Amino acid sequence: MVRPLMEQFRLGPLVLRNRVVFAPITTQYADERGRVTDQLKAHYEARARGGAGVVVVEATYVTPVGQAFVNQVGIHDDTLIEGLRELATVIKQHGSVAAIQLHHGGRMARSELTGMQPVAPSAIPAPRGEMPREMNVDEITATVRAFVRAAERAREAGFGAVELHGAHSYLIDSFISGASNRRTDSYGGSIENRARFLVEVIEAVRTATGPGFPVWVRMNGREYGVEGGTTLHEALQVAKLAEQAGSVAIHVSGFGPATPTNRTTAVFKSAVIEDLAAAMKRTLSVPVIAVGRITPAAADRMIEEGSADLIGVGKALLADPDMPRKVAAGREDRVVPCIVCMHCRDTLFRPDVVGIRCQVNPRLGRDTEPGPAEAAKSKRVLVVGGGPAGMVAAATLAERGHGVTLWEKRATTGGQLLPAAAPPHKDRIRAYANYLESELVRTGVNVELECEGTVEKVLDSQPDAVILATGPRRTVPDVRGFDSSRAVHAEAVLDGTARAGRKVVIMGGELVACETAEYLVEQGRVVTVTRRGPEMATGVGPSLRQYFLDRLAEKGVKLLPGVAYVEVRPGALVVKTSEGRIEALEVDTLVYATGATGDACLYEGLRDSIAEVYRIGDCAVPGWIADAVRQGYDVGCRI
Fold first, then answer.
1. Is the sign of the CA dihedral 495, 498, 501, 503 positive or negative?
2. CA distances from 634 to 396, 445, 469, 617, 630 (A)
3. Residue 122: which of 69, 63, 189 has the closest Cα?
4. Quick check: pTM over 0.85?
5. Which stretch of DSSP H or E encloses residue 29?
6. Catalytic positions, written as ranges
7. Cβ-based neighbour number of residue 379 at 10 Å
8. Is residue 168 a contact partner of residue 174, using CB atoms and an 8 Å limit?
9. Do residues 551 and 533 make contact, with C-beta atoms less than 8 angstroms apart?
10. Cβ(76)–Cβ(62) under 8 Å?
């Protein structure tokens, strides 16, 4: 029996092989002029090959003044059609319906990219955005025409449908929302007037492209934490107007600083805005596309209960483009789980990176590169260390035909993934550790636990190649009176090998220290976090950092940045505060998380005796999960 998510579905004139919609996510894989690149084609081809029913290409700007992202895909000029045709072709050749999202950044556009002041229904800037210029009626009419021409280009390029981006405070949505539209003419005031621009775009596109070319809209079901923003009641009215204008479906999203889709939950929760889709389903006659961290199991339930017709999947298909194919084959256990870390979203805001990246998928952004090939010659490879770098390396090597043994000094694999999964909001990391453990079994890696690697043991095993993934060397604070035998490292607290007293002071203020603080305060401890630097948790990405710091404050964690450490004495850590006061912080348990360095000891002992010795993960350079996974994958492909 076919599970609901894998059922065929008819969307207007389109027949979909299943109900999975690859939701549009900006990649920055186009070139600086918005043209399709080989990387962009390879990215979407991978998601089509992986089995999605519909692949919706990311936001494409319909007019130059509407560009909002670096390396955003363009659809504003006829010279772009040929590249878009190649893109549509690689999607369709794998059996997916190729759709494309039409976008105008509105007040979210950036003059540094366009050379023009952003335009909007009213001169109201987005938070931390530029001041836009209010559009006149002639400009509104011209923008409707720009959407029409973009849709015609999409049809000419071979796409089967277009989605209008009417969400997330971009132009169409900024007309809809009362928080950004203060007009007094026919495009402002009542909800009918605020939806007028959307309705005109839908009707004009439908007229120009004909009934055989579907158009639908992605819109907010609600704005969260936006004063005067769109309510669910208003969104239902807008959706009904869009349906009447000819939208063949409604793709329901959400927006605002408190949007559940851009936040984590204390324990992983699926389908975080299901209520919005369900309300739309009760109101509309056209199909509803739901989105928002929906697992395959939740998708089946939502379809059966009538909360949605189609399931939009975004980040999960970045983590594993083959998810639909694996689910259809009954191998959901082989799906790489998204860990809800927002690394993908945060990379779009990093000036040193162009192109979206993923912590658990080392191939994201590298789809033009060949995948792991069968080894020309099978070798005996020893991997020392069972954290993420070592596990990925071992499974990749075994998949390619090498004989692989993995040594782990502890009683279980997982390495630093296990303590990383202990704090609130981080339990999806445990799911990833479980996935890697299952991959070791599936690929036939010989795992030897409670087996610590030494130079003598490694040499005695006579491997052809050795991969060292033994983790970092902890940095111990250089403070008078500090004794690491009395203090405990944060990892020992998180993995349960150390028990903290009632009053805890943590030395160090980055991610591990602050997450340990949240873990302990949830257990009823009184926690103070100290740091020499002026700010806490600077390494946390912009999507979650302020939310994380606000949680710590709400839970009563005391944060003391900018301190100078004076000494550790029995029952107290003495600091000089940023205001110059000397304070003795009472402490039952002193915890430290003050950084780490690479550990080259084993490498130095082996490199002259074994032809191939590699050092990866934190024992090379301490970094993120993404660094460990990528290095493990790369060395796994190299040998």
1. negative
2. 9, 18, 13, 11, 6
3. 189
4. yes
5. none
6. 170
7. 17
8. no
9. no
10. yes
CB 296 within 8 A of CB 327: yes
Q: What is the pLDDT of residues 243-299, one digit of tens each?
A: 999 999 999 999 999 999 989 999 999 999 999 999 999 999 999 999 999 999 999
Q: Rounded to whole angstroms, what are the CA distances from 348 to 35, 181, 539? A: 18, 28, 15
Distance CA 509, CA 533 (A): 8
CATH of domain 4-347: 3.20.20.70
Q: Alpha carbon of 57 to those of 47, 74, 286, 435, 505: distances in Å?
A: 11, 11, 22, 29, 49
Contacts of 290 (CB under 8 A, 6+ apart): 252, 271, 273, 274, 277, 302, 307, 308, 310, 311, 312
> What SS3 class is residue 621?
coil
Three-class SS of residue 171?
A: helix
CA distance 496 to 628: 24
Ramachandran area for residue 296 (φ above 0: left; ψ -120 to 50: alpha; else beta): alpha
Question: 235-238 — which CB contacts under 8 Å span 24+ positions?
Answer: 235/276, 235/280, 236/279, 236/280, 236/283, 237/191, 237/192, 237/195, 238/176, 238/191, 238/194, 238/195, 238/198
Q: pLDDT tens digits for 31-41?
A: 999 999 999 99
C-alpha span between 89 and 48 (Å, rounded): 11
**pLDDT band of 344, cuts 50, 70, 90:** very high
Tokens representing 10 are 């008819």
Q: At what angle do helices 81-92 and 137-157 cross, to 10 degrees?
A: 50
Q: CA-to-CA distance for 260 and 498, rounded, in angstroms?
A: 34
Q: Which residue reads 């209010």 in tokens?
A: 134
Per-residue pLDDT, averaged over 418-433, amounts to 97
**380-384/403-408 β-pairing:** parallel
Write the CATH number of the domain with boundaries 380-472+599-638.
3.40.50.720
Enumerate the domain spans of the chain: 4-347, 380-472+599-638, 488-596
CATH number of the structural domain 488-596: 3.50.50.60
Give whole-number Cα distances, 493 to 269, 291, 487, 489, 518, in Å: 25, 36, 11, 7, 12
Contact assessment for residue 218 and residue 163, using Cβ atoms and an 8 Å cutoff:
yes
State the chain's mean pLDDT as an integer: 97
Q: Do domains 380-472+599-638 and 488-596 have the same CATH topology?
A: no
Encode 87-110: b = buried (16+ Cβ within 10 Å), e = exposed. bbebbbebebbbbbbbbbbbbbbb
d(CA 38, CA 83): 10
What backbone torsions phi and psi does residue 165 show, to the nearest 5 degrees? -80, 100
Instruction: Please give the structure tokens belonging to residue 379.
Output: 């070798």
